[in-house]
Amino acid sequence: MGVFRLELEKVRQWVLGYPGAELLEKIWVDYHPGRPGDGRLAPEGVTEVSRREDILGNVTVVVRYEFAVWFVLPRGDDRDALDNAQWVLGFQEWVREQDLLGLAPGFGQEQVVRAQEGRLEKADVEGTAAYAVELSFEFKKGYEVS
After folding, report:
1. What domains appear along the chain, each with residue ranges and CATH number?
2. Which of 106 and 20 is assigned the larger pLDDT?
């Protein structure tokens, strides 16, 4: 339990490093009150993508950590909506750049980080809009037989 907690914190701190993150006051884990400036990092699971065993019994697995990242941003007129959409697309591009430059949090070998499916989840009459992005870390991890 403690290990995954450290990984969640690494991801949360990294997301707060996005240059547009100054719009966010806090990123909650698994919960947020829905106020503008709130973010949410929700674990969506760990998937074992593949498993390979060598002749000595050593095992290499490909693992995927999946998260939903939510951002609640102010929504007013069409200009705000355009700014918010650009902010979400900018976050996705930032994730790609961080991955390609080796600046994303690392969890294993040959890691690939993706931010996909950026979308408006809901907008309310109080003037806020919630956006979601699917974030994944796919990597190899080796286990040696003693």
Report:
1. 2-143 (3.30.2000.30)
2. 106
Over residues 83-103, the pLDDT tens digits come to 888 999 999 999 999 999 999
Q: Torsion over CA of 6, 71, 21 and 27, rounded to 10 degrees?
A: -30
d(CA 126, CA 9): 31
Contact 70, 130 (CB under 8 A): yes
Please identify which residue in the block is written with the tokens 């309310």.
124
Whole-number CA gyration radius for the chain: 17
* Predicted TM-score (pTM) above 0.90: no
Tokens of 123: 């907008």
Backbone φ, ψ for residue 5 (5° rounding):
-60, -40
DSSP sequence for the chain: -HHHHHHHHHHHHHHTTSGGGGG-SEEEES-----TTEEEEEEEEEEEEEEEE-TTS-EEEEEEEEEEEEEEEE--SHHHHHHHHHHHHHHHHHHHHHHHTT-SPP-SEEEEEEEEEEEEEEE-TTSEEEEEEEEEEEEEEEE---
